[in-house]
Amino acid sequence: MKNIFALAAILFTLNSLAQPYALGEDKYIKEFYNISLSEQQAYKWLDHLCNEIGPRPAGSLNAEQAVSWAEEELKKLDLDSVWLQEVDVPHWVRGTETAKVKEFVKEYELAVTALGGSVGTPADGIFAEVVEVTSFDDLEKLGEDKIKGKIVFYNIPMDPTNISTGFSYGQAGRQRWAGAMEASKFGAVAVLTRSLTLKPDNYPHTGSMSYGDAKVKIPAAALGIQSADFLHEKLQQNKGLKIELVLGCRSLERTTSYNVIGEIKGSEKPEEVVVVGGHLDSWDLGTGAQDDGAGSVQSMEVLYLFKKMNYKPKRTHRVVLFMNEEFGLDGAKAYAQYTKDNNINHVIALESDGGSGTPRGFSIDANMATVEAIREYKPLLSPFGLHEYTKGGSGADINQLKSENTILIGYRPDNQRYFDYHHAYTDRFEIINARELELGAAGMAALLYLLDKYEMKPIH
Questions:
Q1: Taking the CB of residue 130, how many other CB atoms lie within 10 A of it?
Q2: What 3-state DSSP class applies to 355?
Q3: Has residue 103 got a pLDDT over 70?
Q4: Distance between CA atoms of residues 425 and 54, nearest Å
Q5: How far apart are CA 331 and CA 67, in angstroms?
Q6: For the chain, the helix, strand and coil percentages under 3-state DSSP, each to the nearest 5
Q7: pLDDT category, 25, cuts 50, 70, 90?
Q8: pLDDT at 358 over 60
Q9: Fewer Cβ in 10 A, N or C end of the chain?
Q10: Residues whose CB is less than 8 angstroms from the CB of residue 254 and which lie 6 or more positions away in sequence, other chains included
Q11: What is the Cα 361 distance to its own chain's centre?
């Protein structure tokens, strides 16, 4: 009964406070959008991050430059404090990448890229027969007799019938992160995977992979969709087809990088902390515009908008640009440990790591009572395209802060085109729509403003 009365009280408060405003006319919310759409500060930041700094894999010089740039930009906002948090990160680099189908006297080039964390091939490459599988059950059925000494080709497409492309990505993702680990158990010498995308182009998509407890580490790479389809067709004609694979990737010594953190101190409850963030690192093929330059600059703009409007939040609001989400969540884990060691009370955490598409809403990692309470903001936010408030996941980085006392929220833009570019050469600034990016930043600021104004807390 206590929970029911608490929910009723909060819903009554939200309804009574929202009623004086016509739809979308809260003065702060409307002005957040006016500033974002007219100044386009996040878009300008993203332009610099992508085009002046470029790809930002953890441990790289570019990642180091991005840290310095972000620190300086946050200092320009006249926040109450800006600092760097040290993070130990891996340093993996790619080198030469080629895959050639050898068929009698003919030779065909395939579009290929190493998966993050893969070992390289010998300098002269691997030349071996290819075995295609369309599931991990296929792998088990073939066994060591038919796999040993061969290259396993995982040809598991993302399901185009799911409305959520993220769900399809999750379904097909195991071939990437566990493919080499599983194939090595049967004596495979390398693996090739179908890129995790629904776009039928020929740009291969990278991403992290794991060897787990594998006794033997074998090279792993992804093929562009057209190359994967071509290889499939060739294997229908020639079961003994061979490929020459050369990967020059390797892991260097781990190194030191940083999370970039800035905050506005709370005016009434500074001990209660609200986090908004994205990850500053990216893969190296493109320039990380969608993943996750967009989320980083949107998170920065939330505090920019608060300062621009001279809004003094009741709680401390902190932007965290996490380092190395792509390759192990090192920044998120370091930040979570820091907050645990210092007994920091996070009441809300919001992450943007789903690209810069048209705003759709938010997913909320909390109990249904809390989700229902947040849905009461919909009349104020739906005029700006924020219609969806669903119970679900939040984000990989802020998930490290998960507790019963913290509301975790993921910003959710439209994702129909997100995996066209995800982890590929095509994830570049040119694909970003400025208005969509800015609408997202303003929407994130608007939600956090409402959560702060009405002092929303988890309902137990």
A1: 21
A2: coil
A3: yes
A4: 12
A5: 12
A6: 40, 25, 35
A7: low
A8: yes
A9: N
A10: 59, 88, 89, 90, 91
A11: 17
pLDDT of 206 > 70? The answer is: yes
Report the SS3 class of residue 431.
Answer: helix
Q: Please provide the average confidence, as pLDDT, over all residues in the chain.
A: 94
Q: Known catalytic residue: 129?
A: no
Please give the share of the chain, as a percent, with pLDDT higher than 70: 95
Dihedral angle of Cα 301, 307, 308, 314, to the nearest 10 degrees: 100
Q: What is the mean pLDDT of residues 297-313?
A: 98
pLDDT at 23 over 70: no
Res. 11: pLDDT tops 70:
no
Separation of first and last alpha carbons in the chain: 11
Contact between 370 and 428 (Cβ < 8 Å): no
Q: Cβ contacts of residue 22 below 8 Å, gap of 6+?
A: none
Q: How many CA atoms lie within 13 A of 321 on its CB side?
A: 37
* R_g over Cα of the chain: 24
Q: Tell me the CB-side half-sphere exposure of residue 389, using CA atoms within 13 A.
A: 22
* pLDDT > 90 in the chain, percent: 92
**DSSP code string of 382-407:** GGGT--EEEES---TTGGGG--TT-E
pLDDT in tens, 316-350: 999 999 999 999 999 999 999 999 999 999 999 99
pLDDT surpassing 80 at residue 426: yes
- In degrees, rounded to 5, the angle at the alpha carbon of residue 196 between the alpha carbons of residues 195 and 198 is 100
> Alpha carbon 62 to chain centroid distance?
18
Of 198 and 459, the one with more pLDDT: 198
Residue with tokens 């033997």: 216
Task: Indicate the helix (H) or strand (E) that contains 98.
Answer: strand 97-103
Catalytic: which of 73, 263, 325, 326?
325
What size, in residues, is the chain?
460
Q: Which two tokens stand for residue 36?
A: 């974002």
Mean local confidence (pLDDT), 116-127: 98
Q: H or E stretch including 142?
A: helix 136-147
The residue type of 68 is: S
d(CA 92, CA 392) in angstroms, rounded, equals: 32
Kindly list the strands in the beta sheet with 97-103, ordered across the sheet, starting from the edge strand earlier in the chain.
106-110, 97-103, 242-247, 126-133, 151-154, 190-194, 220-223, 112-114
Q: What is the pLDDT of residue 8?
A: 42
Which domains does the chain carry?
Answer: 16-92+253-453 (3.40.630.10), 95-248 (3.50.30.30)
- Cβ contact 311:303 at 8 Å: no
Measure the CA–CA gap between 29 and 384, rounded to whole angstroms.
10
What's the DSSP call for residue 188? -
The answer to whether the Cα torsion of 426, 302, 85, 82 is positive or negative is: positive
Residue identified by tokens 């739906």 is: 382
